[in-house]
Amino acid sequence: MINILYVEDEASLALIIADSLEANNYRVTHQTNGQQALESFQTQKPDLVLIDVMMPVMDGFTLARKIRALDSQVPLIFLTARTQTEDVVKGFHLGANDYLKKPFSIEELIVRIESLLKNNPKRLSSQRLLIGDYVLDGQKFTLSYHDESVKLSFRESELLRKLYTQKEQVVPREEIIKAYWSDDHYFTGRSLDVFISRLRKYLNKDARLKIINIRGIGYMFTEN
Fold this sequence. Notes:
Layout: E1 2-7, H1 11-23, E2 26-31, H2 34-44, E3 48-51, H3 60-70, E4 76-80, H4 85-93, E5 98-101, H5 106-118, H6 121-126, E6 128-131, E7 134-137, E8 142-145, E9 148-151, H7 154-165, E10 170-172, H8 173-181, H9 189-202, E11 209-214, E12 218-223
Parallel strand pairs: 1-2, 1-3, 3-4, 4-5
Antiparallel strand pairs: 6-7, 7-8, 8-9, 10-12, 11-12
């Protein structure tokens, strides 16, 4: 799941934006001042950063400068009421990838986030995962076997990544459903079984790869 660091000191706005992003399958860490955000950035290494300019302790411009000193590639978007031309120019000079002026729609924010993640080389390389003789591309949502490739849904891709990165461990069914379907009231354990069956079918060209059903508990990915 994509991790977003969101820095905003206005509590009501932050709650709306964070909830909307999480409803769109992003994991959000919210901080209310620049100093806390900088500490969070260094420990969590988010995939993208959203920054307000006017904040206590450390303003957004200073935070952006410090983040760029640590990481030159992580996508960074300013979300701010500072709309003067000089502020916009300063934001880009500090290394921002985008500058969104308040008020904005959540739809526009998500489109801009998706565009930056799609074109970010750091993100692209980190999303490729070798699974036996397969290559999972989490950016393009494809699973490739030599010259053959199948298109996955977002949830299929993320579920396969989760199971593989926790291979030889039992992943509880409840953990999977909470991570990827907590907002879907119609999703059931039977629905999860269907997703698992699809993944097994996709992986059937490499006999070493198995997703084992641990009855009543969850699933375990094995490679042997």
